């Protein structure tokens, strides 16, 4: 038999056995799927050792604004808990972000959450500072979203926080885009939500002219050099296929529910010339997006469309099973914050004009699926950013105290690596970063 036929047979066998064994689906490993996409074996493991490579556990995820990044953060938090990893978290004075929009600094990191394996809370990137904090084998990942849709989202989410938007008569997106310079002040607090937000989050100069081709090229190159993967929100599941391979993770490690969504009534369709105007106003972000969307599709093309589509299907099916186990049925209904009984699951609301929806767990969650998943797994799956960050900080501080009891003199001999010799109190963050989770 030719190699191709052998693969086809293996695919058939693994598919059938998966279907037969779907009772144990949450403990799948992906070995069977690796076989079904032979090209993958050469992508990250030249020796062909796909399937038995250790999971990669040092990850810096640069969380950008309004890009589905909260969903990725939730996935990383859950991964960290399952694997006993340490997540670098902000000191309390920074709230649950690293004192955004200040450029990232090691002083913003709670010293008892280092040495860190994973970092994923909002920050404005400072590459050198982040490199100093994280292990040197860290994989850097970020996510971008199509600029028009993203700007519409920012405009609605921050309509009360961002002065550039608050000045606009009738909260009209059209009015803003017709004469942005009448409302926008580059140096003003929160101006980063009103122009080239992605560029700003990634450490760039949001007000640089797009005519400055050398700057744009240089910045794109820098992002390219820093990040091993730039995910694209519009192709979220496809991006996860690449992420899973990059990190050698199992399928169950990339299961998620969408978090921090707006109600349909808070969204609007962009017609007419709006998308073009938004791209022109956010031209640096547009350049970034086009570059990295093209590169995402080149990488997906290298895997093969059939292989990617198959894995996306399997991922969605597995998510369906997890959802059924947690909620006792199909996808849980999204609820407004007021309807959610469990306050740990209520998402933060940016203003009365925007509804952010979340999920509630049925009281008998987890029993629904014959106890295959615990209530804890289900709760964490739908827990909003602010509550999960707090909870993780609490549990890591407890763990730290257990490892370094206060009276133990060794605590002073073994200070956490990353914060050696650094002043630990963080500057007081000012401004709305205190109250806006800005996911
Ligand atoms: C994580 O730590 C707990 C408690 O120390 C231990 O029981 C568990 O086996 C550990 N899990 C992993 C994946 O290391
Ligand atoms: C990473 O750091 C360790 C110790 O700090 C060092 O021994 C190792 O060579 C470094 N690896 C790389 C690839 O720089
Ligand atoms: C704002 O809305 C009012 C009433 O709907 C309208 O008369 C006015 O022209 C609007 N202003 C702008 C600048 O669109
Ligand atoms: C992303 O790139 C793909 C492939 O080139 C293209 O088909 C798609 O339209 C792009 N998406 C967006 C939103 O620009
Ligand atoms: C969970 O509780 C709801 C309401 O009490 C009930 O309708 C549903 O059948 C229960 N599901 C399971 C699997 O017990």
Automatic annotation (TrEMBL):
Residues 404-439 are annotated as: Disordered. One of its GO terms (biological process) is glycolipid biosynthetic process. This is Galactose-3-O-sulfotransferase 3. It is found in: Golgi apparatus membrane. Pfam families: Gal-3-0_sulfotr (PF06990). Keywords: Glycoprotein, Golgi apparatus, Membrane, Signal, Signal-anchor, Transferase, Transmembrane, Transmembrane helix. Residues 421-439 have a biased composition (Low complexity). Transmembrane segments: none annotated. It is a single-pass type II membrane protein. Belongs to the galactose-3-O-sulfotransferase family. It comes from the Eukaryota. Its main location: Golgi. Residues 1-19 form the signal peptide. One of its GO terms (cellular component) is Golgi membrane. It comes from Denticeps clupeoides (denticle herring). SUPFAM superfamilies: P-loop containing nucleoside triphosphate hydrolases (SSF52540). GO terms for molecular function: galactosylceramide sulfotransferase activity. PANTHER family: GALACTOSE-3-O-SULFOTRANSFERASE, GALACTOSE-3-O-SULFOTRANSFERASE 3.
């Amino acid at each position: 038999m030719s190699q191709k036929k052998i693969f086809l047979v293996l695919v058939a066998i693994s598919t059938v056995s998966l279907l037969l064994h779907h009772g144990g689906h949450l403990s799948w490993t992906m070995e069977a799927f690796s076989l079904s996409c032979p090209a993958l074996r050469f992508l990250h493991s030249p020796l062909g050792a796909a399937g038995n490579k250790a999971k990669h556990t040092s990850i810096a995820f640069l969380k950008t604004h309004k890009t589905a990044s909260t969903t990725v953060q939730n996935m990383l938090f859950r991964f960290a808990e399952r694997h006993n990893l340490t997540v670098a978290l902000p000191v309390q004075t920074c709230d649950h972000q690293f004192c955004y929009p200040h450029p990232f600094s090691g002083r913003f990191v709670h010293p008892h959450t280092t040495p860190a394996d994973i970092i994923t809370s909002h920050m404005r990137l400072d590459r050198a500072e982040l490199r100093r904090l994280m292990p040197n084998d860290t994989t850097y990942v970020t996510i971008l979203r199509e600029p028009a849709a993203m700007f519409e989202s920012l405009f609605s989410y921050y309509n009360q926080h961002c002065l550039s938007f608050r000045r606009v008569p009738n909260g009209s997106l059209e009015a803003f885009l017709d004469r942005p310079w009448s409302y926008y002040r580059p140096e003003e607090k929160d101006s980063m939500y009103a122009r080239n937000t992605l560029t700003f989050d990634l450490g760039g100069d949001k007000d640089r002219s797009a005519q400055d081709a050398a700057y744009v090229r240089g910045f794109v190159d820098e992002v390219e050099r820093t990040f091993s993967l730039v995910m694209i929100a519009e192709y979220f599941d496809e991006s996860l296929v690449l992420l899973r391979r990059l990190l050698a993770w199992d399928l169950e490690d990339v299961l998620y529910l969408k978090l921090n969504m707006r109600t349909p009534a808070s969204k609007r369709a962009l017609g007419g010339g709006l998308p073009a105007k938004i791209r022109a106003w956010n031209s640096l972000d547009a350049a970034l997006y086009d570059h990295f969307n093209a590169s995402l599709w080149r990488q997906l093309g290298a895997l093969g469309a059939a292989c990617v589509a198959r894995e996306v299907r399997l991922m969605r099916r597995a998510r369906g099973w997890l959802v059924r186990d947690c909620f006792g049925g199909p996808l849980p209904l999204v609820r407004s914050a007021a309807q959610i009984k469990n306050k740990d699951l209520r998402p933060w609301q940016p203003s009365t004009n925007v509804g952010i929806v979340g999920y509630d767990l049925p009281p008998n969650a987890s029993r629904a699926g014959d106890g295959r998943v615990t209530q804890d797994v289900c709760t964490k799956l739908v827990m909003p950013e602010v509550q999960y960050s707090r909870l993780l900080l609490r549990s890591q501080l407890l763990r730290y105290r257990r490892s370094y009891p206060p009276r133990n003199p060794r605590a002073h001999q073994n200070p956490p690596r990353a914060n050696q010799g650094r002043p630990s109190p963080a500057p007081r963050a000012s401004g709305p970063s205190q109250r806006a989770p800005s996911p």
